[in-house]
Design a protein that fits this description.
Helices cover 38% and strands 22% of the residues. It is α+β, with helices and mostly antiparallel strands. The longest helix is centred in the C-terminal third of the chain and has 35 residues, at 153-187. It is elongated.
């Protein structure tokens, strides 16, 4: 095992920062780490292979970008941003998503983007130009995940209820017309 710090000692250190309910063992940049979760939004990272013990909450953005470069070594990184707000493609409407998140965009033909969680160094989402188009053709048109509606959730509820009621009205009207015609044609 590459973990030199025993779990018991790591837990003692973690308890100074939070009350962990879950532990994840990860490797980042070839080094072992404990990630302690108190809640979905509250976590602490502890190096597992060093004698110097110090917990922190997020990996450094530059370290994340350096590791992301290895994902596509033949392509340059076009842009790397730490997002503290949701963007058009990473949003928490139908599922919870943590912020901040690091978005790394590559200069390849497919214009690949990676969203990386700085709380544990994992890739949350990978998108290319086709995925981004699909987001608008499916999520926006089928789920009504338009940014303005997502930001104002009661508006999203209202629009969806209005559309459902409109669909119900059209269906009911069609059913009534069909029943009248059926009765007229069959009953004489």
């Amino acid at each position: 095992s590459r973990f030199k710090i025993p779990l018991r000692k790591a837990l003692q250190i973690a308890y100074r920062h939070l009350l962990p309910k879950e532990i994840e063992l990860i490797q980042f940049a070839g080094r072992p780490y404990y990630v302690f979760y108190a809640t979905y939004d509250e976590s602490a990272i502890l190096p597992g292979g060093q004698s110097e013990l110090g917990a922190f909450t997020q990996f450094d953005v530059q370290a994340l970008v350096a590791q992301a470069a290895a994902l596509m070594p033949k392509h340059a990184i076009k842009e790397a941003l730490s997002l503290s707000k949701y963007d058009l493609y990473y949003y928490g409407h139908h599922q919870r998503r943590r912020l901040p998140v690091v978005r790394v965009a590559f200069d390849n033909e497919a214009r690949t983007w990676y969203y990386i969680d700085p709380h544990n160094g994992t890739i949350i989402q990978k998108l290319n130009s086709a995925n981004r188009a699909y987001r608008w053709l499916f999520n926006a048109l089928h789920r009504w995940d338009f940014p303005l509606l997502i930001e104002h959730h009661p508006a999203w509820d209202f629009v969806l209820i209005a559309l459902c009621l409109g669909g119900l009205t059209v269906s009911a009207t069609g059913t009534v017309v069909a029943c009248r015609r059926f009765r007229r044609d069959w009953m004489g």
